[in-house]
């Protein structure tokens, strides 16, 4: 009996360090944020301890926050679609390449070796008034004076696509790698063209990877604040920028906590929907 009890405890003993880390670094801070969201910031700047719904009423009822939330979800959706359109052909090319997959995957992973902030700020040197693109257009005589291409929604989406495209490619690549290429050959032998075999065999089988990449791109783009802060204008703030503004600039932790929990609930709901229909296995493959 003692041996059986020890065997039952062994998995929990092995999981104890990871569970402890997740509890202390994730669940405990999240519990503090939930508690903070019901406190009240007074006119003197101090936080009044208690159970107040003022922050939630402001976050849910103010059209200003609602409009920026919808704008954030719209930008995240556009970014996801662009990543899917650009990422699928690249992933298909890598998956069907022969002999140089390792080199292509290495090139795909290279951006992860550079700081996200540096990659984002590099667009200023490319699209700025004195940037490389304006210099090239002026040198070719296409324009007479520099064009303002920064600090708008299009630039924000461009920066997000630059950041998230590798995640989409990796997830789709993992799904395509798991498809037996002989299935396409079998479809062709039965009279299908290459394009028909792709549409009827390869594409449906790779949809879980495409969905996993889409989920990652959507969640990460909706929760970012660096890209709109660096590349966007005053009207291009996303919801995470409101959280940053409330907590860091205004020092209004209760309101910032309520706003962050709103965004967490929406994105968490999307993850639960994805897990219900497709499961998290494909997502873990893409992240691995």
UniProtKB/TrEMBL annotation:
Cross-referenced Gene3D superfamilies: MetI-like (1.10.3720.10)
Record's subcellular location: Cell membrane
Claim: Zinc is one of the keywords in the record: no
Pfam families membership: BPD_transp_1 (PF00528)
Domain of life: Bacteria
GO cellular component, one term: plasma membrane
Occurrences of domain ABC transmembrane type-1 (ranges): 69-274
Biological process per Gene Ontology, one example term: transmembrane transport
Chief location: membrane
Keyword Coiled coil: no
Keywords of the record: Cell membrane, Membrane, Transmembrane, Transmembrane helix, Transport
Family the entry assigns: Belongs to the binding-protein-dependent transport system permease family. CysTW subfamily.
The protein's name in its UniProt record: ABC transporter permease
Organism taxonomic ancestry: Bacteria, Pseudomonadati, Pseudomonadota, Alphaproteobacteria, Hyphomicrobiales
């Amino acid at each position: 009996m003692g041996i059986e009890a020890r065997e039952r405890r062994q998995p929990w003993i092995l999981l104890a360090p990871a569970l402890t880390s997740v509890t202390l670094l994730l669940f405990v801070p999240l519990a503090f944020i939930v508690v903070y969201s019901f406190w009240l910031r007074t006119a003197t700047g101090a936080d009044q301890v208690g159970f107040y719904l003022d922050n939630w009423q402001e976050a849910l009822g103010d059209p200003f926050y609602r409009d920026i939330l919808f704008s954030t979800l719209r930008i995240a959706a556009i970014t996801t679609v662009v990543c899917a359109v650009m990422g699928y052909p690249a992933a298909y090319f890598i998956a069907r390449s022969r002999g140089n997959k390792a080199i292509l995957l290495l090139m795909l992973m290279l951006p992860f070796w550079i700081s996200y902030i540096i990659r984002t700020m590099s667009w200023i040197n490319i699209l700025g008034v004195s940037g490389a693109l304006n210099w090239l257009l002026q040198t070719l005589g296409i324009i007479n004076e520099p064009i303002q291409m920064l600090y708008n929604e299009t630039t924000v989406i461009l920066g997000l696509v630059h950041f998230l495209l590798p995640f989409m490619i990796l997830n789709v690549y993992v799904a395509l790698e798991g498809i037996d290429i002989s299935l396409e050959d079998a479809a062709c032998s039965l009279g299908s063209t290459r394009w028909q075999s792709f549409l009827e065999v390869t594409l449906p089988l790779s949809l879980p990877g495409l969905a996993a990449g889409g989920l990652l791109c959507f969640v990460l783009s909706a929760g970012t604040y660096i890209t709109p802060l660096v590349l966007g204008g005053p009207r291009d703030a996303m919801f995470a920028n409101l959280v940053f503004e409330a907590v860091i600039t205004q020092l209004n932790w209760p309101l910032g906590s309520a706003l962050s929990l709103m965004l967490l609930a929406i994105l968490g709901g999307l993850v639960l929907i994805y897990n219900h229909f497709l499961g998290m296995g494909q997502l873990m493959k893409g992240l691995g």
